[in-house]
Amino acid sequence: MDKCRICLAQVLWYVGVDHTSPIMATAIANLSPAITFLISVFCRLEKIDTTMSSVAKLSGTMIAILGAMVFTLYQGPGIFHTDSPNRLLLSQPSEWIFGSMVILTAITLGCIWIVLMAVCSTVVSSSVYTWCLRKKGPIFAAMFTPLSIVIAMIIGITFLGDSLHLGRYMV
């Protein structure tokens, strides 16, 4: 599932860059913290209240969204012009809104994935630990913590196509 999401996000990203520009795509990518915050609020993982932390998060989110909208919708006068033959390969300004929406979709998919990983991993992890604590106690549960690297390695090789190396750095 992770590889499918990554592939879809990359395809959408490249389609968006094809219709806008790398500068526009990078600027819109800066919205990912704001989008993640909004998704977290929608999923009730974050609360909005009157604390300074909550007000700062909400203000930053609104400023980021407004800035991205201005950057996407307003095209001011040109600062730097080239007369190279590659000028024909550049996207037309009329496609920038479509490309921006495609890039925004790719970023939103990535943010949804981040939020889902927090929720899913917490549910599975806490369920397994609770079951183990009930059955054998805290020492038994802690004793198998180093086994997690072996389990992660087996799952990575089996399902994700990871390769196994002796040591971290290849010679």
Structure notes:
With 171 residues, the chain is mostly helical. It has a domain of 114 residues. Helix 3 packs across helix 5. The longest helix has 41 residues. It is flat. The two termini are 32 Å apart. 12% of the residues are buried. It is found in: Membrane. It is a multi-pass membrane protein. One of its GO terms (cellular component) is membrane. GO terms for molecular function: transmembrane transporter activity.
How many separate helices?
A: 7
Number of strands: 0
Outline the low-pLDDT stretches. 86-91
Distance between the termini: 32 Å
Q: Tell me, briefly, the overall form.
A: flat
Question: Helix/strand/pairing class, anyone?
Answer: mainly alpha
- The helicity comes to 55-70%
> What about the largest sheet?
none
Proportion of strand residues: under 5%
- Could you state the order of secondary-structure elements as H and E? HHHHHHH
Query: Please, what is the average pLDDT?
Result: 77
Structural Rg: 22 Å
Outline:
The protein is mostly helical.
